[in-house]
Amino acid sequence: MATASALEVRDIYAAYDSADVLEGVSLKVPAGKITCLLGSNGAGKSTIIRAILGLTPPRAGDILIDGQSLVGLPTHKIISAGIACIPEGRKVFPKMTVVDNLRLGGYQENTEAVLKDRMDQVFEIFPRLKERRNQLAGTMSGGEQAMVSIGRGLMAAPKVLLIDEPSLGLSPLFVKENFNIIKRINDQGITVFLVEQNVHQTLAIAHYGYVMSQGRVVAEGTAQELSENKEVHEAYFG
Amino acid sequence: MTQSLKDKLVIILLAAVIAAFSITFIAIEEQVEIFALLVFAAALVLGGAKLGITASIAQSLARNERLMNFAFIAATIAVVFWFREDHFPLLMIATVLLYVIACCGLNIQFGFTGVVNFAGAAFFGVGCYTAAVLGDTSVPLLLVILLGGIIAAIVGSVLIIPVLRTRGHYAAVVTIAFGLLFRTFLEVNDTLGGPQGLGVSGMNLFGWDFNNNIEISENLEISFYMNYVVLALIMVVLTFVLMRRIERSWIGLNFDAVRLDETAAACFGINIKRWKIVAFTLGNFLAGTAGALYAMMLGFIAPSNFAFSDSLILVSIVLLGGMGSLWGTILAAGLVVLLPEKLQVIQEYRFLIYAVVMILILLFRPQGILPRGLRAYIPGWRG
Amino acid sequence: DAKDKVKVAFIGPLTGGVSAIGVGGRNSAELAVQLRNADPDAKYEYELVAMDSECKPNVGVQVATKVAADRSIIGLVGHYCSAVAMGAVDIYHKFNLPMSVWGAVLPDVTYGNDYKEIHRVNGTMINQNDVAAKFMAEQGYKTWVIIHDTTDYGKGHNKYFSEYLTQNGGEILADFGVPADQQDFTAELTKAKQLNPDVIYFGGLVPLGVRVRSQMEKLGISAQFQGVSGIKSDAFIEGVGTELSEGVVSFLEGAPVDKLPGGQYFTEKYKAAGFAEDEEAYGPFAFAAMSLILDGIEEVGPNRKKLTKYLGDIQGHDSIVGKISFDDHGQNTVAAITKYVVQDGKWVVWEDSEYATGARKLAGK
Amino acid sequence: MAQQQETVLTFRGLTRRFGGVIALNKFDMELTNGQILGLIGPNGSGKTTSFNVLTGIYEANGGSIEFLGQDITSWPAQKVYEAGVARTFQRSRLCLELSIFDNIMIGNHKRLNQGLLFNIFQRKALKEQIQENHEEARKLLKIFDPALAEKMFDPVGSLRMIDRRRIEICRALISHPRLLLLDEPSAGMTHEETRELMDDILEVREMIDGLSIILVEHEMGMIERVTDKCIVLNFGQKICEGAYRDVASDKLVQEAYLGGE
Amino acid sequence: MDVGLLGQFVVNGMMLGMMYALVAVGFTLFFGVLDVIKFSHGDVLMVGTFAGFSTYLGMTAIGIDNAFIQLIGVLVISIGSMAILGAVIARYLVLPLKSAPPLNTLLVTLMLGTVLREAIRLFYPDGSNPKHFPALLPTDSWSLGSFTLRSDSVILLVGGLLVIVGVNMLINRTRLGLAIRAVAQDEETAKCMGINFKMIVLLTFALGSGVAAFAGVMNGLYYNEINFGMGLLLGVIGFSAAIVGGLGNIYGAILGGFLFAGLQTLGAVALPFASAYKDVFAFAVVIAIIAWRPTGLIAEKTSERV
Ligand SMILES: Nc1ncnc2c1ncn2[C@@H]1O[C@H](COP(=O)(O)OP(=O)(O)OP(=O)(O)O)[C@@H](O)[C@H]1O
Ligand SMILES: Nc1ncnc2c1ncn2[C@@H]1O[C@H](COP(=O)(O)OP(=O)(O)OP(=O)(O)O)[C@@H](O)[C@H]1O
Ligand SMILES: [Mg+2]
Ligand SMILES: [Mg+2]
C-alpha cells in the first residue's frame, strides 16, 4: 500500500472472561482512507474497536497509531492520540442535553470558539439536533440518538474515527445520508475505520475492507475485490 | 466409587467440618486462637477456590440438595448438642438463628424484589414490643410469635404508599426516616416503657416454662436456652422452606422481574404493586416473628436496641452473605453476630477491628460471600 | 507457692458515645485488681474479665449471660447505663452472680426488684436531685428551664428533679427533651431565652452538656447553668473552655475522692498505673465496688452464694467513696451527695469554693 | 388470508405529546385478524411511541384505542397484556441475570398460576406446570435456534445480541397473544440473519391462531417480504397507507423516508 | 411571637440549614459521579474537624496566635487533608466495588465510617471526650430586642453560601463539571470521549470531602465544640436532605438541608406537642414528602425511554 497506516493492529488476541474472542487479528487502516470491517454477528468486530480504545485491552499483540504503540495506555490517552469513536448502540449520555453531549465529544478541545465552530457544522448536518438542542438525549428516538452519537464523534475532529454500526436503526433515507456524511468526513482528511452490516453501501464508499468470522480475518482486499469475491458475496449479500 | 456416592461423602464431610469449625469458633476465647482460626478458614476457602475444590464441592451440593439440607441441619444439631449445658453459646446460637429469620425477611424485600428496607430493626422491634405487651396476657405464646409478625406487617403498611412510589435511594430514605422515627418515638413516649425499656416474660408452651433449665438427670442439666434454640431452629427451617419455595416458584420469578425491570415486568402483566406489597409485608412479618421470640429469650428490651445502626447490621448481613442468597445469609449472620462477640477480648478496639474485617471481606468478595445462583426450579432438573 | 486463680468481671460501655466513662471505670476496676494482686497478703490471684455492653440492652444481656454463665467468675462490677442494668439484673439473679453496680443511677436497678445479688455502691438519681433542688432553691433561684436527653438517664433526672423542685418552691417554665445525639440546641435555647429563667437545668451527659453550655453563650443567655452528675468530669470543662465553665454547678453521689482517706491513695495509684484515659467521675465507684468484691472473696472464699451473703451484710465498710452500707435492696445508703462548682477551670467542692464564701457569685446573683 | 377481515385493533385520532414535541398526531389506524402491518417512517416519527401508548406505558393525550372490541385507551400495561398484546422493545429489555427460561416465563405470566397458596403449598401441581411450560418454551425456542433451546438454564447475560433478540420474541410469543408488536427486531443483523428471523416469525404465525403483528422496521427488504400492509408515519402523522409496493412508490414517502434512488 | 424572636429562629435555622446543605451537597456529588452513596461522609467531616482542631493546637504551640492566620491554616489543612482522604477512599474502597451491587459500596463506606470514628476515639489524645473548638472569628454581636446577631454567624453563613455557589458553578459551568456529569452516566462512553475517568472520580470525591471538611470546621467554629460522634447524625440528616431535595442537582441538596433545619426548629418550638417529638415530626414529614414527590422536591427530569 502506498499510504502509511494511520492505525495498525498486529496479531491481537483478546478475551472477555475466558475464551478468546479475537484470535490473532491483524489490520491496517491507511491514513486518509475509509477502511471497512465486515462480518456476521458476534464475529468480534466490536471487540476490535474496544481493543483499540483500551476498553478490552488485548491479551497479546500490538496496536499502533502513527507507529506508536497504544497497548497498555488508558483510554483517555488513546483518545488524545487522535482517535475518536462512534460506539455501537449510540451510547449517548441520557441525562444530558444534546448540546452537552456534543460538547463532551469535543472534550479534549479547550478553545470555545473552535468548539462553537464544530458544533455549528454538526447542526448543519443534523438540523434535527439544532431543533432539539436542549432535549435530554435519553428521551430521543432511536434514530435521533444515532444523530447525537455521530455528531458527538465529529466534535472531536480526530485523526482517526472509529465507527461501529452507525446505520443501526436509521431510516433508509438516513442510512444513505449517513454514508454520504462518512464520505464527507473522509474527504476532510479524517481516516475512517467503519464497522458495518450494510455491505452494499459500505463497499460503495470504502477503499479497502476486511471480512471477519469467529475472531479471525477471513478475507481482505480493496472494495472492488471484495464485492467480486464469490465467497464474501454469498455469505453477506442478501 | 460412583459419582453419587462421592457426592454424598463430600457433603457429609463438609457438614462435619462445618460443625467442627463452628464448635471451635464458638468455644475458643483467646484472641490469638480466634485470629488463627479466622485466618485458617480464610486460607482454606481461598486455597480451595484456587484449586477448584470449592467449585466441585458446590457441584456436589447442587446435585444432592436434599441430603445437603439434612446434613446441615444435623450439623447444627450437633453443634447445639455439644453446647447443651452452656448457656452463653446457646444464647449466641439462638441469636444467630433469629437474625437469620429477620434477614430472610430483608432478603425477600431487597434481595428478591429490590425493595430496600433500612428499618429492619424497627420491624424486629415491633415484634419484640408485641411480645413484651402480650407476654403478660393470657394469649398463648406461640400465637404471640405469630402476632409479632402480623403486627410488624401491619405497622409496615404505614409505609406502603411511599415504598410503592419510590425506588432506590429515595426508598432508602423512607425506611431510614421510619427507623429513626420509630426509635425516637419509643424513647419519648412512655406508654411502652420509654427509654428504660420493658421486661418480657419468657416463653411458655403448654405449661412448659422455657426459662427453666431442663434437668435430665442428676448431673445433666440442659440450659434453658436450649428451649429457645430448638424453637428458633424450627422457625429457621420453616422460614428456609418458605424462602426456597418462594424462590423456586412463579412468585420468585415475579419478584426478580420486579427488581430487574419494572417496565418490562409491567408489559408482561406482572402487577408491580402487588408483588412489592407482598414482599414488603412478608419480609416485615418474618422480622416481627423473629423479634417476638428474641424478646422472650432476652427477657428485656429497650428502644436503644432498635436504632439505625441495628438496622444496618441486618442489612450488612444480607449484603455480606450475597443478596438473595439463603446459605449466604446464614453464614453472614453467624459472622456478623459472633465476630464482635469473639472480639470482646480486645474490648474497646473491637469495633475498629470488626469494621476493618468487614471491609476486607467485601473488597475480596464484592458480590457477597456466597452469591445467589440462578434459579433452579426443581433441584437437579435441567429440562 | 502459687495462689489459686479467681476471676472477677467488669461490664461497662467501652465503645460508642459514653465509652470515656466506661473505659475510666474499667481502668479503675483493673486498678483494684492489680493492687490486690500486688498485695502479698492476698489469698488469691485475681483475673479481671472486662466486657463491653455498648450501652445497648441486647448486647448487655448477652455479655451478662456470658459472665453469669461462666461459673469461674465469682463477682461482677457492672453497668453504667441504666437500661442495660435493668435488662441484666434478672440474669444475675437467675445465675446467682453477686454484683455491684458502679455507675447506673436509675433507682429501679436496685429498688425495682428483690434480688439479693444486686448491689449498688453509687447513689441513685433520687438522692442527687433531692439535694440539687434544695440547694439551688436555697441560693434564691426561682425559675428553671429544663433541657434533658430522652434516654432513661435524662428523663429520670428530669422526673426527679421536677418533683423535688416543686416541693422546694421552684418553678419550671419549660422542659425540652432532646435526643442524646443532638447537635444544635439553638431552637430550644432561643425559646428558653424568651422565657428568661434564672437557671438552665441540664439532665444528660458531657457531650450534650458541652453543647448546651456553649450555645447558651452564643445566644447571649446569662442564666445559671446547673448540671447533673453526668457532666461532673474534666471533659466538660475541657469541652466548653475555662471561661464558660466558670460557675457551673453539678452534683455527684459520694464524698469527694480526695477528701477521703483512701481517695488520695486512689488518685495517686491511678496516675502511677499509667492508664491512657482518665478515671472519669465514676471511676472511684468502680474501684470501690471492685475492692469490695475482692474483700468479700478474700473473706469468704471464691463462692458466689457466700459472696452474695457477705455483700448483703455489708454495713459501714470503708471505701474510697466513703462508708458503704447496703440497705435491704442492696443500695448503698450512705450516698452522700457532694455539690461541685467549677472555679478557674476545676471542679471544686462547693463548700471549699470562693462561691460559698461569697467572693464569687453564681450567675444572676 | 385464512381468516375473515375481523378488526383487531383500531386507533382513532391517537395523539401524544412530550412537552413541545408532538410524537403522535391524530393517528388513525386499523388492523385486521392475522394481518402483518409494517409501521415505517423516519427516525423520531412516533413508531415506538405508538407502541408505548398502545401498551399502556404512556398515556394518550387524545384519541382512542380499541382492541378486540374493547376500549383500552387508558388501560395500564398489565391489563393490555392480559387482553392479548405482547411486545418486544427497541432496546432489548431482558433480565440479564436470569436464565433464558426465566425470561421467557416472565412473558407467560397470564398463563401461569400466580396464587400465593398454589405456589407455596401445591408443589406437585407447580412442578407439573413448570415442566409443561418448559417443554412449550423449548419448542418455541427451537424454531428460532435449536442451540438456544439446549441452554434454557443459562443466564441471558452470557448470550449474543442476536440470541437475546430471539429470546425477546419468544418471551412475547409464549403467551399466545392476539397481537404482537415488534420494534426493529432485525436491528444489527446481517441480511441472512434477518431473513432467517423473518422465516421463523412467519412460521410462528402459522402456529398461533389469528395472530396479528405490527412490525416496525427500517429494513425494507423485510417489510416488503412479510407485510400485508404498510403505514408510513412522519412527524407523528400518517402520510401514507397501503401495500408496500404502493407505499414505496409514493412520492412523499420517497422524499421523507426512503430517499429516491 | 415577637419579631425579634422570630428573626432569631430564622437565623438559627439558616445556620443549621447551611450545615445540612453543605453535607448534602457532598452526597449529591458522590451520587452524581458514581451513583454511589458514601455513608462515611459524616465521619470524614468529623475527621476534617479534628484535623482543623489539631492544626489550631499546633499553630498555637509554635506561637502563631493571630486568629486570622490560624483560621486560614485550619481551613487549608482541614480541607486539604480531607480532600486527600476522600480521594484515597475513592481509589481503594469505592472504585474497586464499581461493579458490585451499589448497596455494597454503601456498606463498605459505612464500615469505613466506623473505622474513622473509632480511630479518632481511640487514637486521638483523649479522643472520646468532646473538645473545645476555638472561636477564630470575630464575635461582636448586635442585639435588637430579643434578637442577637453575631458577626461570626454572619461570616459563616456567607462563607457557606459562597462554597455552595462555587460548587454549583463548578458542576454546571466548567469542563470539569461536564466531565463529572458524564462519568456519572456512562463510564465507558465517558472514557471514549477522552475523559480520565479515574481522575474525575478521585477529584469529585476530593471535592465532596473538602466541602465536608469545610462544613466540619464551620460546625466547630459555630458550636465551639467537637466530638468523635458528631458526624454520625449529620451524615444521616445530610443524606436525607439530599434525597428529599432531589438528587438531580445541587439545589435539591440546598432545599433539603434548609427544609430539614426548618422542620426541626418548627418541631422544637412551634408545635403543640412536647419538643421531644420534634424528630418524630421531622422524619414523619420527610416520609410524607417523599410519598408525595417520589423523586425529591426538585424532581429529576426523567430521561428513561422505553
Ligand atoms: N461483555 C462481554 N462479555 C462476554 N462476552 C462478550 C462480551 N461482549 C461480547 N462478547 C462475546 O464476544 C464475541 C464477539 O462480540 P462482538 O461484540 O465483538 O461481535 P460483533 O462482531 O461486533 O457483533 P455484532 O455484529 O453483533 O455487533 C461474541 O461471541 C459475544 O458473545
Ligand atoms: N419520553 C419522552 N420524552 C420526550 N420526548 C420523547 C419521549 N419519547 C419520545 N419522544 C420524542 O417523540 C418523538 C417520537 O419518538 P419515537 O421513539 O416514537 O420515534 P420512532 O419513530 O420510534 O423513531 P426511531 O425509528 O428512531 O426509533 C421523538 O422526537 C422523540 O424525541
Ligand atoms: Mg458489534
Ligand atoms: Mg423507535
TrEMBL record, chain A:
<dbReference type="InterPro" id="IPR052156">
    <property type="entry name" value="BCAA_Transport_ATP-bd_LivF"/>
</dbReference>
<dbReference type="GO" id="GO:0015807">
    <property type="term" value="P:L-amino acid transport"/>
</dbReference>
<feature type="domain" description="ABC transporter">
    <location>
        <begin position="7"/>
        <end position="237"/>
    </location>
</feature>
<dbReference type="InterPro" id="IPR003593">
    <property type="entry name" value="AAA+_ATPase"/>
</dbReference>
<dbReference type="GO" id="GO:0015658">
    <property type="term" value="F:branched-chain amino acid transmembrane transporter activity"/>
</dbReference>
<dbReference type="InterPro" id="IPR027417">
    <property type="entry name" value="P-loop_NTPase"/>
</dbReference>
<dbReference type="InterPro" id="IPR003439">
    <property type="entry name" value="ABC_transporter-like_ATP-bd"/>
</dbReference>
<keyword id="KW-0029">Amino-acid transport</keyword>
<dbReference type="GO" id="GO:0005524">
    <property type="term" value="F:ATP binding"/>
</dbReference>
<protein>
    <submittedName>
        <fullName>ABC transporter ATP-binding protein</fullName>
    </submittedName>
</protein>
<dbReference type="InterPro" id="IPR017871">
    <property type="entry name" value="ABC_transporter-like_CS"/>
</dbReference>
<keyword id="KW-0547">Nucleotide-binding</keyword>
Automatic annotation (TrEMBL), chain B:
<feature type="transmembrane region" description="Helical">
    <location>
        <begin position="90"/>
        <end position="108"/>
    </location>
</feature>
<feature type="transmembrane region" description="Helical">
    <location>
        <begin position="34"/>
        <end position="55"/>
    </location>
</feature>
<feature type="transmembrane region" description="Helical">
    <location>
        <begin position="141"/>
        <end position="161"/>
    </location>
</feature>
<feature type="transmembrane region" description="Helical">
    <location>
        <begin position="277"/>
        <end position="301"/>
    </location>
</feature>
<dbReference type="InterPro" id="IPR001851">
    <property type="entry name" value="ABC_transp_permease"/>
</dbReference>
<feature type="transmembrane region" description="Helical">
    <location>
        <begin position="9"/>
        <end position="28"/>
    </location>
</feature>
<keyword id="KW-1133">Transmembrane helix</keyword>
<protein>
    <submittedName>
        <fullName>ABC transporter permease</fullName>
    </submittedName>
</protein>
<dbReference type="InterPro" id="IPR043428">
    <property type="entry name" value="LivM-like"/>
</dbReference>
<keyword id="KW-0472">Membrane</keyword>
<feature type="transmembrane region" description="Helical">
    <location>
        <begin position="115"/>
        <end position="135"/>
    </location>
</feature>
<dbReference type="GO" id="GO:0005886">
    <property type="term" value="C:plasma membrane"/>
</dbReference>
UniProtKB/TrEMBL annotation, chain D:
<keyword id="KW-0813">Transport</keyword>
<dbReference type="InterPro" id="IPR027417">
    <property type="entry name" value="P-loop_NTPase"/>
</dbReference>
<dbReference type="GO" id="GO:0015188">
    <property type="term" value="F:L-isoleucine transmembrane transporter activity"/>
</dbReference>
<dbReference type="Pfam" id="PF12399">
    <property type="entry name" value="BCA_ABC_TP_C"/>
</dbReference>
<dbReference type="GO" id="GO:1903805">
    <property type="term" value="P:L-valine import across plasma membrane"/>
</dbReference>
<keyword id="KW-0067">ATP-binding</keyword>
<feature type="domain" description="ABC transporter">
    <location>
        <begin position="9"/>
        <end position="260"/>
    </location>
</feature>
<dbReference type="GO" id="GO:0005304">
    <property type="term" value="F:L-valine transmembrane transporter activity"/>
</dbReference>
<dbReference type="GO" id="GO:0005886">
    <property type="term" value="C:plasma membrane"/>
</dbReference>
<dbReference type="GO" id="GO:0015808">
    <property type="term" value="P:L-alanine transport"/>
</dbReference>
<dbReference type="InterPro" id="IPR003439">
    <property type="entry name" value="ABC_transporter-like_ATP-bd"/>
</dbReference>
<dbReference type="InterPro" id="IPR003593">
    <property type="entry name" value="AAA+_ATPase"/>
</dbReference>
From TrEMBL, chain E:
<dbReference type="GO" id="GO:0015808">
    <property type="term" value="P:L-alanine transport"/>
</dbReference>
<feature type="transmembrane region" description="Helical">
    <location>
        <begin position="280"/>
        <end position="299"/>
    </location>
</feature>
<keyword id="KW-1003">Cell membrane</keyword>
<keyword id="KW-0813">Transport</keyword>
<feature type="transmembrane region" description="Helical">
    <location>
        <begin position="228"/>
        <end position="247"/>
    </location>
</feature>
<dbReference type="GO" id="GO:1903806">
    <property type="term" value="P:L-isoleucine import across plasma membrane"/>
</dbReference>
<keyword id="KW-1133">Transmembrane helix</keyword>
<comment type="similarity">
    <text>Belongs to the binding-protein-dependent transport system permease family. LivHM subfamily.</text>
</comment>
<dbReference type="Pfam" id="PF02653">
    <property type="entry name" value="BPD_transp_2"/>
</dbReference>
<feature type="transmembrane region" description="Helical">
    <location>
        <begin position="254"/>
        <end position="274"/>
    </location>
</feature>
<keyword id="KW-0812">Transmembrane</keyword>
<keyword id="KW-0029">Amino-acid transport</keyword>
